[in-house]
Amino acid sequence: MKWSLALIPTLREEPKDAELMSHKLLLRAGLARPLAAGIYTLLPLGQRVRLKIENIIREEMNAISGQEILMPVVQPAELWQESGRWDQYDELLVRFQDRSERSMVIAPTHEEAVTDLVRRHVSSYRQLPLVLYQIQTKFRDEPRSRGGLIRVREFTMKDAYSFHTGFEDLDMFYPKIQKAYLKIFERCGLDVLTVGADPGLIGGKDSHEFSLPNNSGEDQVVLCDHCNYAANMECAQALKEIANRDESLLSFEPLETPNCTTIESLANFLKVPTSKTAKAVFYTACHHDHQELIFVVIHGDLEVNENKLARVVGTADLRAATDEEIKAVGAVPGYASPVGLTQKVKVIVDDLIPHERNLVAGANREHFHLKNVNYGRDFHADIVADIATVREGDRCTRCQQGILKIKRAIELGHTFKLGTRYSSAMRAMYLDTSGQEQPIVMGCYGIGVGRLMAAIIEAHHDAKGIVWPGGVAPFEATVLVLNSEDSAQRELGEQVYQALRQAQMEVLFDDRPESAGVKFKDADLIGIPLQIVIGPRGLKNKTAELQRRRDGSKREVSYTEGFQAVVQAVTEETTIS
After folding, report:
1. Helices 487-502 and 564-576 meet at what angle, rounded to 10?
2. How far apart are alpha carbons 21 and 518 in whole angstroms?
3. Same domain, 215 and 261
4. Residue 154: which CATH number?
5. What gap in Å lies between CA 333 and CA 213, rounded to an integer?
6. In this structure, are 271 and 355 located in the same domain?
7. Are residues 495 and 562 in the same domain?
8. Which SS3 state, helix, strand or coil, does residue 281 take?
9. How far apart are the C-alpha atoms of 373 and 441, rounded to whole Å?
10. SS3 for 43?
């Protein structure tokens, strides 16, 4: 490709609304342009990188017997109603009616569609296991798209699905997909962490994320400094210290606590640690067709993990309840208590609370709290579960020795053992060896292609611009003619360019009538691994200068006996990069 014919709109200044380095460089290097909030057009360089990434994914998925399909983006609502997710998904799911007034959705994910496909064509154990995958556009109406391609509304994802006769077969396949994922990320130049994850609304039992440690990442991963425990913050667990296990149960009594509407003010007033208090937190859970008030009780020194809570409640759409909603169930904001509530409200208690003794809790009376409140005697819960957020410095729940550290990261891929979550709900069955009907056991595995592109830039850039790893670079090399007005330099550049093309190499020829400085800056910005410089010195000595983008190292290659030596040298260099 000749630069003079290409659409590569590079920018000198950093875009003001871009925060992440990958977002800045995507725009500055002319890889992408926004069309609307969270919706991007990939320009030619960006599209070339995307196709390189997709080819890597295809090769590794095909290597584990994956078969590529392509499912529709628009799906009938009946499938989502069958699976039960029609009511579980919030505004992220775009719903509409077609001209026949049939309810439809724009798919954010394809579990329903692939389950429907398989139940129509798989009926016997002899057809299993089966691995299908696609690379397809999806849409989620994210309220807070950010970071360029890191969090968008329209995106490209590789999603794969495996189908098995039982959990044993799924368990045998699961390490294969994880190994394939690690190889994909390695070929993209990334060193990732495999961490335990929350399945969220997709469902299933075991789930893992592949995360790139990055200070700009929107995810947090929790790591033990002693064992191999690693988990996303959304589901991470810590060893919870029970401070008051051996205390005798005391009678609760009211305490006047004027203006103590926060845990901190209450603990300071009573001169007790915050761990001695039971904190009340109210949420409104927004289901598709109704809302419900959620009364959470948790240790005063802990914070609610809203992702854990959302999974317990069964919806990702949680918001803080208003004072009016709290008062409507007979509770008093700032002094709320699960003790003595007369109106029905769903009470969810963190699993540490039942083990503690004699806590201070609200009295549902303004300026009053209750002393010596105990779970089981004074109040009960509809659900007891771990809903607490892990803190830096907590002890590891696995080894009970290590200290937990928290790092920011970018999620690149996610794998799930779905089990029979969808096959049971949608009647995707097979006949086993005895002729008995059984639900197909499923797995689900995703990689965000655009997010992966952004993560590569986050991991591979310097002060000058992007530094693409060779396997995903938009071109293998770029030919820079320092003075395009010089006919001899221009002709030599054309000859080198054509020789490389004939050798089936991907080359960008900068034939623009720009200064050498502009050409070098643009070449560094877009980050092609190898620069082949044609200038007056090389013209005089009959040499071409090869310069690596990654480390700036240079070498001279003679073309006195033709350009095959240049082609060979470029081949060697691009293989190294």
Report:
1. 60
2. 21
3. no
4. 3.30.930.10
5. 40
6. yes
7. yes
8. strand
9. 46
10. coil
Give SS3 for 303: coil
As a whole number of angstroms, the distance between CA 577 and CA 561 comes to 26
Q: In whole numbers, what is the pLDDT of the chain averaged over residues?
A: 93
| Peptide bond before residue 175 is cis, with ω within 30 degrees of 0 | no
Confidence of residue 189 (pLDDT cuts 50, 70, 90): very high
Q: Interhelix angle for 21-28 vs 449-459, to 10°?
A: 100
* pTM confidence score: 0.87
pLDDT per residue as tens digits for the range 477-491: 999 999 988 999 999
Q: Which pair of structure tokens corresponds to residue 181?
A: 């994922």
The residue to which tokens 């309840």 are assigned = 321
Determine the average pLDDT of the residues in 19-45. 96
Q: Are 46 and 34 in contact (CB under 8 A)?
A: no
Residues facing residue 32 across a β-bridge = 42
Pick the closest to residue 198 from 222, 234, 243, 162 (CA basis). 234
The pLDDT confidence band at residue 577, using thresholds 50, 70 and 90, is: low
Asked whether residue 12 is assigned to any structural domain, the reply reads no
CATH of the domain at 327: 3.90.960.10
Q: Quick one: which H or E segment has residue 453?
A: helix 449-459
532 and 506 in a common domain:
yes
Closest CA relative to residue 105, chosen from 135, 140, 153: 140
Domain holding 564, by residue range, is: 475-576
Same domain for 357 and 422? no
- DSSP for residue 379: B
Mean pLDDT of the 315-321 span: 85
Residues 337 and 448 in one domain: no
Q: How many whole angstroms separate alpha carbon 17 and alpha carbon 146?
A: 10
Q: Sign (positive/negative) of CA torsion 161, 166, 167, 172? A: negative
What distances in angstroms separate CA 429 from CA 128, 131, 205, one per listed residue? Answer: 11, 16, 20
Rounded Cα–Cα distance for residues 80 and 103 (Å): 10
Q: Could you tell me if residue 244 is inside a domain?
A: no
- Cis omega (within 30 of 0) on the bond before 129? yes
Which residue, 376, 383, 352, is CA-closest to 285?
Answer: 383
In a domain, 150, yes or no: yes
CB 7 within 8 A of CB 42: no
CB burial of 174-212 (b: ≥16 within 10 Å; e: otherwise) equals: beebbebbbebbebbbbebbbbbbbbbbbbbebbbbbbb
* CA-to-CA separations, 454 to 57, 144, 150, 273, 466, in angstroms, rounded: 16, 17, 7, 45, 11
Would residue 80 count as lying in a domain?
no
Q: Which of 356, 385, 414 is the last residue of a domain?
A: 385
* pLDDT value at 191 more than 90: yes
- Structurally, how many domains does the chain consist of? 3
Same domain, 189 and 64: yes
Q: Are residues 195 and 269 in the same domain?
A: no
- Token couple for 229: 């425990």
Residues 6+ apart with CB under 8 A from 555: 545, 546, 569
Encoded tokens for 507:
């080359």
- Rg of the chain's alpha carbons, rounded to an integer? 29
